[in-house]
Amino acid sequence: MSSPRTSSLNALGLISGNGANPEIRDLQVDSREVGPGCLFAAIPGTRVHGAHYVERALEDGAVAVLTDSEGASIAGDAIRAAGAALVVSDTPREALARTAALWFGGQPAVMAAVTGTNGKTSVSTFVRQIWIEMGHAAVNLGTTGVEGAWTAPLAHTTPEPITLHRALRAAMDNGITHAAMEASSHGLDQRRLDGVTLRAAGFTNFTQDHLDYHETFDAYFDAKAGLFARVLSEDGTAVINIDDPKGVDMAAIARARGCEVLTVGRDGGDLHLTAQRFDATGQDLRFEWQGKAVQKRLDLIGGFQADNVLLAAGLVIACGGQPQEVFDTLPHLTTVRGRMQLAATRGNGAAVFVDYAHTPDAVATALSAMRPHVMGRLVAIVGAGGDRDRAKRPLMGAAAMAHADTVIVTDDNPRSEDPASIRAAVLEGAPGAIEIGDRAEAILRGIDLLEPGDALLIAGKGHETGQIVGSDVLPFDDAEQASMAVAALDGRLA
Ligand SMILES: CC(=O)N[C@H]1[C@@H](OP(=O)(O)OP(=O)(O)OC[C@H]2O[C@@H](n3ccc(=O)[nH]c3=O)[C@H](O)[C@@H]2O)O[C@H](CO)[C@@H](O)[C@@H]1O[C@H](C)C(=O)N[C@@H](C)C(=O)N[C@H](CCC(=O)O)C(=O)O
Ligand SMILES: Nc1ncnc2c1ncn2[C@@H]1O[C@H](COP(=O)(O)OP(=O)(O)OP(=O)(O)O)[C@@H](O)[C@H]1O
Ligand SMILES: N[C@H](CCC[C@H](N)C(=O)O)C(=O)O
Ligand SMILES: [Mg+2]
């Protein structure tokens, strides 16, 4: 991966209060990673101010520190005593994002980002699939890592700017011309993608999640709105699901800045879904593009995937794709890993799906989306993550009870919390549900319940390959467990 080996502080757009302009050899946001010639970004965190680690960074060779006024008052003396440069910014996270963009000096030429409570991974994956079908070298970047014509693992949905721009530069160096990325609310709030140049930005929907971090719905909305109010430039296009009332607000925010807006929806819009017909393997869609009817096959389970696919098509069009060519790719789209993924089928024909629903709205959406594809009973396995929004737990239980015939409550990444108390919170909203803490056993029991025509949705972990208990990550893959359970049960019955 190529990036500049050195740059001066000023060439990175940063000015030191003492006029120093040292040669910069690396950027770091964590003092533990700092080495000689490094610019250390000492930013205020949720637990501690990074400025408390400046002395350690200076000892390890930092030659410049980017921070805010609070950081300057904590560490200014040490920085001056070491003769290092001190750059003070009111918005140090944004300054870091712009510095990282300049440092790595390149990204795929055509980029789109998508935000919303649910559907970001799905939409960005469909955008990538459409681009690839159209012959472009494309990737999507987010919860499932960098996927497509070039791949790399990522630890976060929207990585912090240094990791993000390193990945974008590496993608570009590997010939990638098109990239679709997820903009998480944490990422937007922390300005992680403020250095990315976007042709288009998309909005899926807005419901409850992450209130542990944002605290109020207003703060959560404002974080997401940052994509249209700040990150998308004025010559970019906002592609908005206007069925969600918050989409109408997002469109107004984008329009007020002079951005073009392309609307998508069932109630109307430039790209307007007018009819859907479901069968066992997918659905037929009828939609209108600027008033002209189009009909296409979609080999995807779940009515909501049509909303995601049309939003993706809108983003590709907003990035310059020719609409008819874009629509012709839709029958070739394939399941997004861990999203309404058919994981196994029992000998009696009953189907087992794995899905990443981990919010109340997603649980309701995923289960109700399965109904038209299922003739018999619908069984759901749900759980909620530890160290995450506690308020969503009973609501997830209630959503499962409202939309499935049988509900099993199990564990999903308890992290540092007591798994039994997380289950108890989910069960508050799901009285009468079956409680089975061990996820493998829950899957086995769920599959054992299936009769001909029934279906099971295993919600919450999707593509994940581990169960996080304490600080350990124990190997666990819902799809693999489902296949093993089907083999064990049908083998026994045969
Ligand atoms: C809650 C949250 O988002 N935290 C992010 C935040 O860390 P923080 O504010 O808690 O950091 P802190 O511990 O207070 O430390 C403050 C600063 O001191 C620095 N430090 C700390 C210790 C040390 O020894 N030396 C040092 O320099 C830290 O690097 C940090 O810059 O800033 C850090 C640096 O940018 C991020 O790495 C970190 O993400 C953590 C790892 C995280 O897990 N975030 C999750 C919740 C997240 O972002 N998830 C979203 C959404 C997922 C979804 O949509 O479902 C995602 O985009 O992945
Ligand atoms: N348009 C949608 N409306 C409602 N629910 C959806 C929609 N798209 C996906 N979902 C549900 O949300 C789950 C997660 O989807 P996806 O991974 O695409 O969302 P995400 O926004 O990327 O999530 P994360 O915040 O974890 O990154 C899916 O498995 C499905 O259950
Ligand atoms: N990436 C999201 C979703 C995780 C889904 C679920 N498996 C959980 O652990 O809560 C998060 O970290 O909140
Ligand atoms: Mg995602």
From TrEMBL:
Domain spans labelled Mur ligase N-terminal catalytic: 24-101
Pfam family, one: Mur_ligase_M
Keywords associated with the record: ATP-binding, Cell cycle, Cell division, Cell shape, Cell wall biogenesis/degradation, Cytoplasm, Ligase, Magnesium, Nucleotide-binding, Peptidoglycan synthesis
Primary localisation category: cytoplasm
Associated pathway: Cell wall biogenesis; peptidoglycan biosynthesis
Locations listed in the record: Cytoplasm
Gene Ontology terms describing biological process: cell division; cell wall organization; peptidoglycan biosynthetic process; regulation of cell shape
Catalytic class of the enzyme: ligase
GO cellular component: cytoplasm
Enzyme Commission number(s) from the entry: 6.3.2.13
Binding-site residues, UDP-N-acetyl-alpha-D-muramoyl-L-alanyl-D-glutamate: 31, 157-158, 184, 190, 192
Mur ligase C-terminal domain span: 338-462
N6-carboxylysine PTM sites in chain numbering: 224
Superkingdom classification of source: Bacteria
Chain positions of motif Meso-diaminopimelate recognition motif: 412-415
Mod. after translation: Carboxylation is probably crucial for Mg(2+) binding and, consequently, for the gamma-phosphate positioning of ATP.
Cofactor list: Mg(2+)
Binding site for ATP: 116-122
Substrates-to-products reaction catalysed: UDP-N-acetyl-alpha-D-muramoyl-L-alanyl-D-glutamate + meso-2,6-diaminopimelate + ATP = UDP-N-acetyl-alpha-D-muramoyl-L-alanyl-gamma-D-glutamyl-meso-2,6-diaminopimelate + ADP + phosphate + H(+)
MF-aspect GO terms: ATP binding; magnesium ion binding; UDP-N-acetylmuramoylalanyl-D-glutamate-2,6-diaminopimelate ligase activity
PANTHER family, alphabetized: MUR LIGASE FAMILY MEMBER, UDP-N-ACETYLMURAMOYL-L-ALANYL-D-GLUTAMATE--2,6-DIAMINOPIMELATE LIGASE MURE HOMOLOG, CHLOROPLASTIC
HAMAP family attached to this UniProt entry: MurE (MF_00208)
Family affiliation: Belongs to the MurCDEF family. MurE subfamily.
Functional note: Catalyzes the addition of meso-diaminopimelic acid to the nucleotide precursor UDP-N-acetylmuramoyl-L-alanyl-D-glutamate (UMAG) in the biosynthesis of bacterial cell-wall peptidoglycan.
Protein name per the record: UDP-N-acetylmuramoyl-L-alanyl-D-glutamate--2,6-diaminopimelate ligase
Protein species of origin: Sulfitobacter alexandrii
Chain's gene name: murE
